[in-house]
Design goal:
The complex is a heterodimer of chains A (180) and B (189). By secondary structure, chain A is of the alpha+beta class. Helix content of chain A is 52%, strand content 13%. In chain A, the strands form 3 sheets. A 3-stranded antiparallel beta sheet of chain A has the order 1-2-3, with no helix packed on it. Chain A has a two-stranded antiparallel sheet with strand order 4-5. Chain B is α/β, with parallel strands linked by helices and 189 residues long. Helix content of chain B is 45%, strand content 22%. In chain B, the strands form 2 sheets. In chain B, strands 3-4-5-6-7 form a 5-stranded mixed beta sheet, covered by helices on one side. The N and C termini of chain B lie far apart (89 Å). The chains are: A alpha+beta (180), B alpha/beta (189). At the A-B interface, α1, α2, β5, β7 and α4 of A face α1, β1 and α2 of B. β5 of chain A pairs antiparallel with β1 of chain B, so a sheet runs across the interface.
Chain lengths: 180, 189
């Protein structure tokens, strides 16, 4: 069960439209929202509500999946809950793939382009981790179908692998947004 | 029911683990900087070092403030040229501006915060043009003690000067005073 999710919020393109005085600066985002630029120090700024919403969604997503899996089990009268591990692994993978898009923030006013050298170094590492995660997802499917009773730290193996891939996707998203 | 409990544990554990790692990364990067490149419309690149945990919006804000600061300095130099006709100035290739007066040549580099400087970067600035006499750093924030210490230990210490222009002070006047001092321009035009 592959779950595809968009993480547009992670790599949104912003553009500059207006410059007034030092204390009245603002950016217009691609969703039309205005961003106040009056603070000079980046560490003083908290994430905007949409960024917090995306973060909350990605943190809560595995919990949201459980009632769906359980409902499917009741409707189909088939045990789909044993496939929860591969499902969250696939969800994690679908978060990772959009992160491979290079960051290029463009300020339209004078045509400057902001490039992050860290991001250029991060993308190949991401691809390696995506391939590793693909194998992990395959392993999770294998354990789920063939060896559902095998456990790691009393957690079914397919669930442990799925949780691991999902955790990795959360870390990689954070690194892309804040570090790269 | 057992698989439901296990699924619930995995569903809570996965984001919790991710959040814990993110917290660790944040703590380890606190106070550190990351490199950002600005490709200007002229095709030239400018390197910036900003807070390691700055997100896209914060990066753009920092870039915008830096470009505005450079523009303000450029305006201040142009204003000074009206007063001192022998003062020539142009935008540099590896430094922001180069000013020249009576055979003295000054490179001017504008930084909001001068938070990273090493011998390689210093040589790059000082070698930006032929026969540069001095390098002037114009900053918005006070220069960090570690940077001052580095310059004092450098063999180029006599060729480097800093001027921090605090918010609220007259930028144009501060820039003019600094340039006049470094280029030994007399007070009267």
């Amino acid at each position: 069960m592959l779950v595809a999710l968009s993480t547009q919020g992670a790599c949104s393109t912003l553009w500059l439209t207006k410059k007034t005085t030092r204390h009245q600066k603002s950016l217009t985002l691609n969703n039309g929202a205005k961003l106040d630029l009056s603070q000079d120090h980046p560490q003083n700024t908290s994430p905007s509500p949409p960024a917090q919403m995306y973060a909350l969604l990605s943190y809560c997503f595995p919990i949201m999946l459980i009632p769906f899996e359980w409902g499917l089990k009741l409707i189909l009268e088939e045990d789909s809950t044993s496939f929860f591990g591969p499902t969250i692994a696939a969800a994690g993978l679908s978060f990772m793939v959009p992160l491979t898009e290079p960051k290029r923030l463009r300020s339209l006013k004078n045509g400057e382009i902001v490039i992050s050298p860290n991001d250029n170094r991060y993308i190949p590492i991401l691809w390696i981790l995506i391939i590793v995660s693909l194998f992990a997802w395959a392993a999770s499917c294998y354990f789920s179908l063939k060896l559902p009773s095998v456990t790691i730290l009393s957690l079914p193996c397919h669930l442990a692998i799925g949780a691991g891939v999902y955790s990795l996707s959360i870390v990689l998203t954070f690194v892309k947004r804040r570090v790269a | 029911m057992e698989i439901l409990v296990s699924s619930l544990i995995a569903a809570i554990l996965a984001p919790a683990l991710g959040a814990a790692f993110n917290l660790l990364i944040s703590r380890s990067l606190r106070g550190k900087t990351k490199e950002i490149m600005i490709k200007k419309s002229s095709g030239e690149f400018e390197q910036l070092y900003i807070d390691a945990l700055a997100n896209d919006e914060q990066v753009l804000r920092e870039v915008q403030n830096t470009l505005e600061f450079e523009h303000d300095v450029y305006e201040a130099i142009k204003k000074l040229q009206f007063t001192y006709r022998n003062l020539s100035a142009h935008q540099g290739h590896l430094v922001d501006f180069v000013a020249e007066y009576n055979n003295l040549k000054l490179a001017i580099e504008c930084k909001l915060v001068l938070n990273r400087l090493n011998e390689e970067v210093l040589n790059k600035y000082l070698g930006a043009e032929d026969r540069l006499d001095k390098l002037l750093f114009l900053t918005r924030a006070p220069v960090a003690p570690k940077i001052r210490k580095f310059i004092n230990a450098s063999r180029n210490r006599d060729r480097v000067a800093f001027v921090s222009i605090a918010d609220g002070s007259n930028l144009s006047e501060s820039v003019a005073t600094a340039i006049k001092k470094e280029l030994q321009i007399s007070q009267s035009p």
